[in-house]
User: Which sequence fits this backbone?
């Protein structure tokens, strides 16, 4: 069996184990048993349980049709706005949605920051690899078009500032009684988008021009169709 095939076999077994027992209830030993290999062989492909889980989440992101379509769009101010809107929508809806697995993942991410940070570091690296280049290219186009003001320092930090802000906002809404009364999800999404886009450097004219379209129902699919 080739190394790539063995890796996919392990990932398949890990998905089943995580789905059945959750992150905490799954061990590398149980994954190895499900894949009919030794734990030592599993460690040759994945150094830890956190690495296994981060790889699964990365594959799920890559398989998301909406994200895949967005990442294939031409870098632009519109793409930048849609990227931020999509990130805000994803995090805000975690507390409202029936998918408790997403809520558990968010809790795991928060816990990782208070523990050894391994899972958070791995996932951040995968997010950067997947989205970082599109964000940077779109920000560069927005600046060139006069829609945004360049910021000193590493421009990728602007993406992380936005990511961390919206992730923290989502965490406040996870308990049955939210920690903060932010209001309705739709109002919160708009306010977060405006706040983050201004922080990234977009001017009010560019935000007004693109955000309403991005927040409109079905806007993502329509914009993708227009760019095709």
Assistant:
């Amino acid at each position: 069996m080739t190394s790539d095939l063995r890796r996919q076999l392990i990932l398949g077994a890990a998905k089943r184990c995580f789905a059945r027992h959750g992150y905490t209830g799954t061990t590398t030993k149980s994954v190895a048993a499900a894949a009919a290999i030794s734990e030592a062989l599993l460690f040759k492909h994945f150094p830890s349980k956190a690495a296994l889980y981060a790889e699964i989440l990365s594959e799920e992101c890559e398989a998301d049709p909406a994200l895949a379509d967005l990442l294939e769009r031409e870098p632009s101010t519109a793409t930048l706005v849609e990227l931020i809107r999509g990130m805000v929508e994803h995090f805000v809806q975690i507390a409202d949605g029936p998918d408790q697995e997403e809520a558990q993942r968010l809790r795991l991410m928060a816990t990782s920051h208070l523990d050894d940070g391994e899972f958070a570091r791995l996932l951040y690296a995968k997010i950067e690899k997947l989205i970082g280049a599109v964000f940077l290219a779109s920000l560069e186009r927005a600046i060139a078009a006069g829609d945004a003001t360049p910021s000193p320092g590493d421009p990728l930090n602007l993406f992380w500032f936005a990511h961390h802000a919206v992730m923290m906002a989502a965490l406040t809404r996870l308990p049955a009684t939210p920690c903060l009364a932010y209001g309705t999800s739709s109002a919160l999404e708009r306010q977060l988008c405006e706040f983050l886009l201004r922080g990234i450097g977009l001017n009010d004219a560019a935000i007004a021009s693109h955000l309403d379209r991005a927040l409109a129902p079905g806007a993502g699919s329509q914009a993708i169709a227009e760019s095709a």
Remarks:
- The CA atoms of residues 28 and 43 lie 8 Å apart.
- The first helix runs from residue 3 to 25.
- DSSP finds twelve helices and no strands in the chain.
- The chain has two domains: 3-46, 59-227.
